[in-house]
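Fold tokens
===========
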Amino acid sequence: GPSIDLGKSRGYPNTIVQSGDMLGQIRFAGADGTNLESPAAQIKVEVDGTPGENDMPGRLVFKTTADGSASATERLRIDSNGRVIIANDGVTNPTGTNTQYAPLVVRGNTSATSSRAGWLTLARSEASANVGSGEGIGEIFFGDQQAGEYGAIRCFADAAAAVGDYPGRL
């Protein structure tokens, strides 16, 4: 089917690209009363390692611009190893033994005013009614495709919720 192909070289005819080189991007901007240059968001593709013959490691980078800011900050990255890194602190290249091999890394901005800035939140959406007693709220599942469930952390409502009263159990 149809496609849009973007290609990059460091020179003529085919000088090899290097780690960190941008291969292409899509930028989204809106009129801010002055011009159309202020970015709201960007999607970029960058080289994510050392390229070789028929070997082009890449990462997909998603950026958004915070309210009051003039530049976009990286918020989500899918790297060449398949890791998904979500970060509201702009640090999407984590290092250290706890994050370098994890398939999902979630980083929070610990300098933010919210005490929950570094948390991962699982929330149930209930549009018309409060959650009732015994209903599931969220789950973190540990398992594999062959054996199934090894364990889980589950949250349930202990009683009907009311304004300011959310009885639950893990």
